[in-house]
Amino acid sequence: MFSFYENFSAFLAQYALLKKNSTVIAGVSGGVDSMVMLKCLLEYRKEMKINLIATHLNHQIRGRAADLDEATVRNFCQENDCKFVSKTVNIKEMARKRHVSVEMAGRDARYQFFKEVGDNYPNPLIATAHTANDQVETVLYRILKGTGINGLQGIRVKRDNIIRPLLFARKADIYAYARENHIPYREDHTNTDTTIPRNYIRQTLIPSIKSEINPSVERSILHLSEVFSDLDQLNKTSAKKALKKCLIRQTSTEIALDISHLKKYFNSVIFEVIRESLSILHSNATTIDYNIMDNISSLIHFGQTGNIQKISDNITVSLNRNELIIQKNDPQNWTGFEIIPGKHYSSAFFNFRTEVLSICKFKPDNENKNVEYVDFDKIAVSPLFLRPWQKAERVVPLGSSHSKKVSDIFIDQKVALHKKEQIPILICGKSIVWVCGYKLSDLYKIDSTTTQILKLIYEETAL
Fold first, then answer.
1. What phi and psi values does residue 99 have, to the nearest 5 degrees?
2. Which candidate, 270, 183, 192, places its Cα nearest to that of 235?
3. Bridge pairing between strands 125-127 and 23-27
4. How far apart are the first and last CA of the chain?
5. What mean pLDDT is reported for the chain?
6. Within a 10 A sphere around the Cβ of 286, how many other Cβ atoms?
7. What backbone phi and psi angles, to 5 degrees, belong to 305?
8. Could you give the CA distance from residue 122 to residue 205 in angstroms, rounded to a whole number?
9. Looking at residues 171-191, what average pLDDT do you find?
10. Total structural domains in the chain?
């Protein structure tokens, strides 16, 4: 029978989590899990010569108890010749300012702290003390809240540079190892608060399931997470191929997918294509609730042009004819520019510039819809302004004697709903000069009296 440390070392080898001379940033709260992880890493350091740094974030939630947590970790590191870095953060105040739960604020603060410490070292690994029990609780929690294949695999052994070297270990074995090796640790009384969902699962739900349904429920759920971890890898491989086949276009703010191709895949693949698209647009894209994914599926199969599903404050999924458009609403959204001839202007969506030409040097470019020419004297009577379109406004298209709604022009040109907000409108006073890239006004056209020309150049910003 292998010892706890032998199982720890075998687990690291099985998943190739650590190499010789690696730098490891260990998150140590002072609880039994993280203190046992630190002790095992200290033992492993003797074999593999890893550079080990213990980090502790004082949340200031439990007053004097939080200070004792920090002191416990600090003293243990001093006794074992281990580098120690700590930081104090008022998590309750952070949660209040960000309008999130204390748990979420604490998690974000911890990983930000790990990153800050890791930035001082080349290619650092961050070790967190998640256990097999945490895995069971996580999978159960996600089942109850709603999830898919990705969520049912639970906590990953390795994600980016984050490793979980205790994910093999059960709580009872961790306590036993701590006792046998006289490892000091602190108990957090908030772990008994069953108003916190994870604590309720741990303290009430799992014991009830074990006594009434399945005494081996933990083993069953761990097996389930392993099965879905394999399925998730298979699903990701299929999704990468599907994305290539379905991709219509990709810019810095949107990805457009061909719905007719997308419909051919199972929902699990479709959902992974959406996730992959989001990661391309936004590296820190939030985890998507399964109910939102289900709404996106309905959008794909039964939606109509203009239907929108909000994913987060700055990411939406919308339908435009045969296109599913995943859009990032850039915080740099523009409001308008006063145009001075000869100068260059840009937003997250486009570049715009003008040139003044004499009539004798005029050589029209009739092939490029993003280049137009107007009579400079006609537009010189009022200031020029570039801004987003406004509902109900009209323009007299070139060659016409009647005005037309800009919204109707967008419909005729099959402009996607979300893109309408990105297309600039050039205004002279209160009159439209150019719906950029689409329609020039007849009121400012070049005629026999023209002596100077203003060249208008518009370019969409691409990835």
1. 60, 45
2. 270
3. parallel
4. 56
5. 89
6. 12
7. -50, 130
8. 43
9. 92
10. 3
Three-state DSSP class for residue 404: strand
CB count in 10 Å sphere of residue 424: 24
Instruction: Give 375's strand partners.
Output: 453
Residue 228 resides in a domain: no
Residue 35 is part of a domain; what is its CATH number?
A: 3.40.50.620
Q: How far apart are CA 226 and CA 69, in angstroms?
A: 34
In whole angstroms, what is the distance from residue 271 CA to residue 296 CA?
Answer: 8
Structure tokens at 251: 């810019």
pLDDT tens-digit series, residues 302-311:
888 778 888 8
Stated pTM of the model? 0.68
Within this chain, do residues 318 and 346 fall inside the same structural domain, yes or no?
no
375 within 8 A of 446, measured Cβ to Cβ: yes
Residue holding tokens 């693949």?
A: 269
Would you say residue 284 has pLDDT above 70? no
Tell me whether residue 127 is in a domain: yes
Q: Looking at 272, 303, 328, which one is the last position of a domain?
A: 328
What is the domain-level CATH number for residue 383? 3.50.40.10
236 is a domain residue = no
Residue 85 CA: distances (Å) to CA of 19, 56, 94, 162, 399: 23, 6, 21, 18, 72
- Domain boundary residue among 305, 328, 351? 328
Residue 428 reports pLDDT greater than 50: yes
Q: Which two tokens stand for residue 436?
A: 């950029």
Q: How far apart are CA 282 and CA 288, in angstroms?
A: 13
How would you class 102 by CB atoms within 10 Å of its CB: exposed for 0-12, middle for 13-18, buried for 19 or more?
Answer: middle
DSSP symbol at 203: I
Report the CATH number that the domain containing residue 317 is assigned in CATH. Answer: 3.30.465.60
Residue with tokens 């001082």: 120
Torsion-angle region of 392 (φ positive above 0: left; ψ -120 to 50: alpha; else: beta): left
User: Does one domain contain both 292 and 319?
Assistant: yes
Q: In terms of residue numbers, what domain contains 407?
A: 337-460
Of all residues in the chain, the percent with pLDDT exceeding 70 is 96
- Range with the poorest average pLDDT among 326-340, 368-382, 439-453: 326-340
Q: Which of 32, 308, 292 is nearest to 172 (CA)?
A: 32
**Domain assignment of residue 317, yes or no:** yes
